[in-house]
């Protein structure tokens, strides 16, 4: 009997796809573990409540959790919008908080792994599953053809 995962994605993953998924997961889980430990235990932010720290720095990482658990390529793709925040945060702290260099470098490493992994996992897995994002040019050509065929009637 097939598992639910096999029913959702009957196409086997190629080794390159699995590798990029591992990169994405290492980066994602790394950020998910690093950020609360760093911001609540190692170097708490003065002047900010724990609720603020959670909402701004940790909650965004929870948004793609369900889709990542369900192995949805689309979730991996849009998770890159979230990881951009961690790049901005990390590069800003490289400049202003050099005393936290090890934590900043860890954040940037995990964010890089997640970004590269998510980007290429979504691409490769989408190709394996036959998913594709239609190009605007194709959409416009179809609309034009449909409009012309209607106007001829």
Major pleated sheet: none
- Specify the helix fraction band: over 70%
Kindly report how far apart the N and C termini lie.
52 Å
What would you report as the Rg, rounded to the nearest angstrom?
Answer: 20 Å
Any idea what the shape is? elongated
Please characterize this protein's 3D structure.
This protein has helices at 4-8, 15-42, 50-62, 65-69, 73-96, 101-129, 136-152. By secondary structure, the chain is mainly alpha-helical. It has one domain (14-152). The longest helix has 29 residues, at 101-129. The protein starts with a helix and ends with a helix. Keywords: Coiled coil, Membrane, Transmembrane, Transmembrane helix. It comes from Pseudoalteromonas lipolytica.
Outline the secondary-structure elements.
Blueprint: H1 4-8, H2 15-42, H3 50-62, H4 65-69, H5 73-96, H6 101-129, H7 136-152
Helix pairs in contact: 2-3, 2-6, 5-6
Short description, anyone?
InterPro entries: DUF2069_membrane. This protein is an all-alpha fold.
